[in-house]
Amino acid sequence: MHQTMSTSPVPGRVGLGLRREFVDDLITRPTSAIDFVEIAPENWVNMGGRHRAQLQAVAEHYPIICHGLSLSLGGPAPLDTDFLKQVKGLLNEYQVPLYSEHLSYCTDDGHLYDLLPIPFTEEAVKHTARRIRQAQDILGRRIAIENVSYYAAPGQQMGEAEFVRAVLDEADCWLLLDVNNIYVNSVNHGYNAIDFLRTMPARRIAYLHVAGHFVEPDGLLIDTHGMPVIDPVWELLKETYATFGVYPTLLERDFNVPPLSELLIEMETIRQFQQPWLAETRTLAHAY
What we know:
single chain; 288 residues; alpha/beta; 9 helices; 12 strands; 42% helix; disordered C terminus
């Protein structure tokens, strides 16, 4: 029997990344098409006034999860423990069930303004896992780490999938499985996306991301979250459900944000893809 969403700390089946372009629509015209929203805590921890009131209003209609941008789990600089304490306050205030971050780094005595790849080495596994455990100790909860898109692999001593699994086990944390990132990396680095997918540990999955990307003239894929999801990524999402069962799935759109109505169409596609596997799980559960 497939695992189901009951194993995940994330509430609901289909979510959307919160963007200010449509936050007022979410508040004034709440919709049952959105089960949960995802926010970047960096955008809200020190925010007051009108924007804080907006977040409060969103929280009254939708469960919130947090997806961080700046913790730099693989970086050389000490973790920003003051920021983590601010995040903990936000999580507690809004009863957020999950905080996730990227398996990457973005600081070295200052922010580098990009998510850079961690070398796939045993030393990096231990270094990154130690920092994840430190973050979990401060927050008082298990966090999720996201498999990231990357465009170079400096100092590589193991494969990407092996590295991700090693960090998950060493840190004892959740996995935020980004389906688009698997596809982008498979094209850019020449591996089979389905083979990679099937090596991910189901028991670690908290939820999924799906998004669009940009294709450079030379064929390089850039993970921009600025385009609609394309057919090969939709197919990989369906393969994810076929492999693991249905997990909560979030649509990301960070740039070129269209009207909310267009995003809801993509979210409905996710919901339709989930339905056959939910039906199968219910049938098998009834049989037992």
